[in-house]
Specification:
The protein has 1 helix and 12 strands. By secondary structure, it is mainly beta. Strand 7 and strand 8 form a beta hairpin.
């Protein structure tokens, strides 16, 4: 299977409503212009989960370490920014992976200028 796109919701002054996207085994991807923010929720009441944002670049031949966000049990974390030069794959998208997809939800927002 392949990664699935997550819709990026642009934040506006009057507010937005977005339904969280359930994590999936194959991971997600989202378009990134360096103004995106991730809201990550762990619905597991007993254990933490991790969400990994892949970094595809190399510096002097060495892989840059992926960003791993740990979300404690029954908690929410926000992560931003995602600079294009660090996080974007060749298709302009950020790749996201989950340690426990069935108990992880994610929302992606575009911050206003």
């Amino acid at each position: 299977m392949a990664r699935t796109d997550i819709t990026v919701t642009e934040i506006v002054r009057t507010g937005v409503v977005q339904t969280a996207t359930q994590g999936i085994v194959d991971g997600h991807q989202f378009l990134n212009d360096s103004r995106t923010l991730a809201r990550i929720e762990n619905t597991n009441a007993a254990a933490s989960v991790t969400v990994t944002f892949q970094t595809p670049i190399k510096i002097h031949g060495l892989d840059l370490v992926d960003l791993v966000v740990t979300i404690p049990a029954s908690s929410v974390r926000y992560s931003a920014p995602f600079p294009r030069a660090v996080f974007n794959q060749s298709d302009g998208k950020v790749y996201v992976d989950y340690s426990a997809p069935t108990t992880t939800k994610i929302e992606i927002y575009k911050l206003p200028l």
